[in-house]
Amino acid sequence: MTTKRNRSFLTSLGLLGLVALAGAPGVSAAQDTITLGAAVSLTGKYSTNGQHTKNGYDLAVKLVNDNGGVKVGNKHYKLKVVYYDDESTPARGAQLAERLISQDHVKYMLGPYSSGLTKAMAPVTEKYHIPMVEGNGASVSLFNKGYRYLFATLSTTEYYLKSALELLDEQAKANGKDPHTLRIAMAFENDPFSRDIRQGVIDEAKRFGMKVVVDDKLPPELNDMTATLTKVRALHPDALLVSGHAKGAALVVRQTHELHIRAPMMATTHCDSAKVAQKQPEASEGFLCASQWDRTLSYKGPWFGTAEQFAERFEKAYGYAPPYQGAESAAAVLVFVDAFQRAGSLDPQKVRDAIAATKMQTFYGNIDFDKTGKNIAKPMVLYQIQDGQYKVVAPTRWANAKLIYPLN
Q1: Bridge partners of residue 84, in order along the sequence
Q2: How many whole angstroms separate alpha carbon 187 and alpha carbon 287?
Q3: pLDDT at site 273
Q4: Residue 158: what pLDDT?
Q5: Residue 31 CB: number of other CB atoms within 10 A?
Q6: Given a cut of 90, is residue 20 above it in pLDDT?
Q7: Could you tell me if 32 and 106 lie in one domain?
Q8: Are residues 254 and 346 in the same domain?
């Protein structure tokens, strides 16, 4: 009898075609291949961003392999990734991390999509002393547990929407308004990622003296936020901030438009992965979007070249513009490549130590890990959807457009 779990595993095999050889009894990876393991969300609520994550990994692996692979000591190695579908479920992610390490004998791990899945898998990789480089678990709570084998290429969650309040403060002062009179409405998914973003917003609002008048949780299925938007209509806040991954972004854009609700400033996470500018061009106009990366930035590295060159290669491979999830995932692969080369060894502990000492420039930005595993060298960016295009409006020194404010 084929159980539901077996069907899921077989689906992963059919989708990815990489697991059978690496996991079969008595069959090991070729001596000239370095195998990385990854459990990513190919089904479930995170499947959109899970696919972006996988695409980023695959693009980087292909580029490295097409250019001779990784030189470790005097030998060159090709890269390979063994994938499983974690079904957007933390428990399944932890189980698959155990499988990759214990049964597939993977010695190096790429992270899953989302802070919740990363939080579930990190104790497993830590237990086995397996280095994991991830680009999609931004929750700051991941980095206060003393993990030594977890490293993240992205900026952590407390920075995601803080820049929106900084812009709001700037606009208030420019218009002769006291920031202490500003009022904020916000709604967040009840997951580690969004809870940390919420805390960052609360801390920033306190710093500026702004008042939070709506502080709601998004519904678990991310299918209706009418209750929150009814409060927004009644209270007329100066800004509406939302975080609920791709589904949450699509939801707030759609329902604010349907209900004819506009705050002077509206900001959300995951605009690009939800493709709201393409799918909801009229409704998304003016929305501010927190982003880890943008193709217009002047970042440059040895593998992909510039941010724009990475974007062009991604578009050619997958037929759509790269969201930042694809970029930060590709950067995670490059961290491993750099560490293998500097370590001159495939010993996991030596590779881990090389990762910890990383200081590199990439198309995604600079990467420099602090002692907790956070990347402290790359800031967040904030863009605004203007005429159907994503325009960087913060930080100011990298802006390529002027902020449109107010929206109503």
Answers
A1: 39
A2: 15
A3: 83
A4: 87
A5: 7
A6: no
A7: yes
A8: no
User: Alpha-carbon distance 400 to 392, whole Å?
Assistant: 5
Do 179 and 120 lie in one domain? The reply is no
Distance CA(82)–CA(102), nearest Å, equals 13
pLDDT of residue 31: 56
Confidence of residue 12 (pLDDT cuts 50, 70, 90): very low
* Domains identified in the chain, total number: 2
Q: Cα separation of 307 and 48, whole Å?
A: 22
* Structure confidence at residue 284 (pLDDT): 97
Interval 112-151: pLDDT, tens: 999 999 999 999 999 999 999 999 999 899 999 999 999 9
Read off the pTM: 0.78
How far is residue 341 from each of residues 34, 178, 344, 362, measured CA to CA in Å? Answer: 12, 54, 5, 16
Provide the domain limits for residue 269: 158-291+381-398
Q: Tell me the C-alpha distance between 332 and 51, whole Å.
A: 15
Got the DSSP string for 257-318? HHTT---SEEEEE-HHHHTHHHHSHHHHTT-EEEES--TTS--EETTTEEHHHHHHHHHHHH
Cα–Cα separations (whole angstroms), residue 100 to 81, 94, 130, 349:
11, 10, 11, 18
And the tokens for 278?
Answer: 């393409």
What order do you get walking across the sheet with 150-152 strand by strand? 70-72, 75-85, 33-40, 109-110, 132-134, 150-152
Query: Which pair of structure tokens corresponds to residue 196?
Result: 């940390």
Q: Are residues 27 and 130 in the same domain?
A: yes
Candidates 140, 134, 138, 66; CA nearest to 291 is 138
Region of residue 352 (left: phi > 0; alpha: psi -120 to 50; beta: else): alpha
Task: Indicate if 8 and 48 belong to the same structural domain.
Answer: yes
The SS3 call for residue 325 is helix
pLDDT at position 395 is 76
And the tokens for 53? 């994550």
Task: Give the pLDDT of residue 208.
Answer: 96
Both 135 and 280 in one domain: the answer is no
d(CA 406, CA 264): 4
Count the alpha carbons within 13 Å of 68 in the hemisphere toward its beta carbon.
7
Residues 254 and 318 grouped into a single domain: no
DSSP H or E run through 42: none
